[in-house]
Amino acid sequence: MSAPETPLAPAAARLEVRHLSTSFATDGGRIQSVADVSFAIQPGQTLALVGESGSGKSVTSLSLMGLHARTSQAQVSGQALFVQRDGRTVDLLTLPEQHKRSLRGNELAMIFQEPMTSLNPVLTVGEQIAEAARLHLKMDRSAAHAHARRMLELVEIPAAAQRVKEYPHQLSGGMRQRVMIALAMACQPTLLIADEPTTALDVTIQAQILALMGRLQKETGMSMLFVTHNLGVVAQYADAVAVMYAGRIVESAPVHALFATPEHPYTRGLLACLPGVARRREMAGQLTTPSAPRRRLVAIAGQVSSPLDPPPGCAFAPRCTSRQTDCETAMPSLETTAAQRRVRCLHREVHA
Amino acid sequence: MISPRFQPLIRTLRRLFARKVVLAAAVLLACVLGVALLFPALSSADPNALSISERLHAPSSVHWAGTDELGRDVMLRIIHGARYSLLIGFVTAAGAVLLGTLLGMFAGFFRRLDAPLMRVVDAMMSFPDILLGIALVSILGVSLWNVILALVIVYTPRVARVVRATTLVLRELLFVDAARALGVRTPLILWRHILPNLMSPILVQVTFIFAYAILAEAGLSFLGVGVPPDIPTWGTMIAGSLDYADKAFWTIFSPGVAIVLTALSLQMLGDGVRDLLDPKLKKTV
Questions:
Q1: Which of B50, B64, B93, B185 is deepest in the core (most CB within 10 A)?
Q2: Number of A–B residue contacts, CB under 8 Å
Q3: Looking at the domain covering B19-35+75-277, what would its CATH class be?
């Protein structure tokens, strides 16, 4: 194909994102939604992208898929080196639209947050799965339909032969998310981007969906970029974590290291907000501020700074408990502190 | 035994006709359509046959709806006129919906086209329907197909507005993004994902424009800028016999009743279809 054959450094990872930045035009001026985001996902591994609403984690995934609304006038810079099935490395951000379309849904698939609206209400679920198969696997109508049924069986939908002929409104939320997974898996992608796939589901269904995704990942060896704000989910299913704050990665680490020894004050704050952690700390007598009555959940003080008026230094400085004067002058860089560990903080907590 | 393939269709029809008004409208329309299509094929009676000795006869067992100023049978002319009125209504509805859907879908989906297309549409909608129709027929000349063309131009903006509004909502829905994430091209997204979702407003518009077009044709013909008087439509019948209405009210009453009943039935059916397709009223089985 006509991909620009610029000499790209070979990436061992399935996807290596380097210095991804995305900005949007708004009425109040251009805002930097994602800045200098770098991470890598190894084949068969899951990277969790964690952060609160507006931290840029969804924008990151949309930038990778090239799905920004045309009206938003998104400007994307950086590199996203993706290793195709044929072994060639391409940069997703500069790829011509036609080439990218051939990857989307084929090698690169995405699951959205809202299973209620991400299926077309007037097409049967079978038709929608078959569409992907016909598009990329070049199957004919009947083969694609049979494929759709197999996909529904793969995502453990009972009575798949019956369900394949049903419309989205006839399915429950959990079922619809299974259909979305079937849709994403239809062409056996090597990278699955899941944008908060379980947020809209109730807890018991969440566990089922996550178990299903874990099983499919093990069977197919695909890589996953898992966008979420649920730290419990991260602890259980991810291999590595990148924590985002105000459009930047503030800390990235293997999952156990991050939970055991969080180095960035924001990460520590997030973990302290978890009810279980809070109680443990409280028991140990660490968190007895006079103002907070016992057994109240911890919250990080203050609010996320406005993207139209970012603080001059560290974005987290205004809320940080270990803030010092140098935090407010310049944005700290993302420093490598240990193998696979990077932290964006001048005064990170050093663990023994 | 009915084949299970038709089960959903039967269920849908049952729900549509659950309202008696809708059922009555459908039956009436079926009768009008059946008579209009079948009668001229079965009977060679000429609707233009003159019989001066029988001018302005009141309705009787021979002439069910009486005769007009030239002794022509009003009932026969209403039946023949139904063909033209229904033809005008149907072709106008089909043409306006086709053009309007195309315009509205492009305006709604491609933001760049929105302002230029919709300003033209707004300009056209600012004219009262009948005035625009009169102007267009005056320019095009009086003929059956020119009346249809004029009515298509009059009703296209109406469809375009409705379709554009719905497209604006649809294009922001996640399934359009999801389709794009699957690598579906824009033309296919329009055809497979947007258009089928537009079907319910389009279907409702078809029934309404059908009814409006019948009324508008009657209005235009009545004003003398519609179908030429030698073609019997309900509008030309009323226009032709107006001078005799004080002596023989049946000459305009009967075609008037035909217009009202047909248009009303179409409206009722349109209401029924709209209620059926409105997702807010739809219950999940």
A1: B93
A2: 69
A3: mainly alpha
